[in-house]
Amino acid sequence: MSRIRKVEIENFRGIQNLSWLPSNGINCLIGPGDSGKSTVLDAIDYCLGARRNLQMADADFHNLDVDTPIQTTLTMGALDDALKSMDSYGMFLRGFTKETGVVEDEPEKDAETVLTLRLNVEGDLEPSWSLVSERAEAQGLTRNLSWADRARLAPTRIGAFADLNLGWRRGSVLNRLSEERADASAAIVKAAREARAAFGDDAKEQLSDALKIVTDTAKYLGIPVGDEVKAMLDAHSVSVSGGTISLHNEAGIPLKGLGIGSTRLLIAGLQRMAAQSSSIILIDELEHGLEPHRIMRLLDSLGAKEADEPLQALKRTLSATEIQFNVHNGP
């Protein structure tokens, strides 16, 4: 169950420079509107999320300074054996000292073994992801996390589009609950064939004049269409996508129709169940759509009362008792 040990953000939107050491469990980003809370979550999501492409704009650069690159650097600890493999990442393994927050290029005896991932965006707006290691760079070596490892480390985001996690889409928390996968292709193909045949019978009556004209024209031009052309559903009009299979209630009503609060609460609970494969969750505006008693239930589902934190939660809120990170904003 990997954890983010250190967050470093430079020149991204309202943040000129940020350095933050989040704790293992629940972390609150606290402050008024437009103070940079969402920017921190976006930076983490963009850097660690399982995405191959990222759309950036000049407005994403601090004070529109496109000559200074955007950099988000995340140091990841609590690595599993695969991420500490010398064959895969040996030259990129580093050491982290919790007491000082210092990351050193050579793993030390008393330091935690970590990997540091960096997202860099230059003025050409092309994002690049790479692992950080001075000794590897000195030898001309560069590499990124493998796609499988990125998918395992990717955080679940509970925000405006949280209901995407209620279907078996790419990156959905549902894919992390088990290794089971359903194939809807056969059922959809069968249904499409039956629908095409049924529609063709109806269309023969509804479009009889047009069909006769097409048939006569084709025959006149010597185009082989048989005795008559038919209007049927296009054989390619039914497609199967990652969101074809989604959750429904007992009555068959899609769970995407749930209220905002219920959706966020359910996804948080599912993320807890998937913690063995993905243990980082990002929550936009904790209190949005939730009554106080349901906020407490959500926090419980994240393991707020447990000594051995099952999840590392990074969430933003408008009010709380203390600010746990400092942002240095430029002029």
Q: Can you describe this structure?
A:
This is AAA family ATPase. InterPro entries: ATPase_AAA_core, Bact_Antivir_Def_Nuclease, P-loop_NTPase. Pfam families: AAA_21 (PF13304). This protein is of the alpha+beta class and 331 residues long. It has a single domain, classed as P-loop containing nucleotide triphosphate hydrolases (Rossmann fold, 3-Layer(aba) Sandwich), CATH 3.40.50.300. The protein is built from eight helices and twelve strands. The strands form two sheets. Strands 1, 2, 4, 5, 6, 7, 8 and 12 form an eight-stranded antiparallel sheet that branches. A four-stranded parallel sheet has the order 3-11-10-9, sandwiched between helices. A hairpin with a 2-residue loop joins strand 1 and strand 2. Helix 7 packs parallel to helix 8. The longest helix is centred in the middle third of the chain and has 22 residues. The protein is elongated, with a radius of gyration of 26 Å. The protein starts with a strand and ends with a strand. The C terminus is likely disordered.
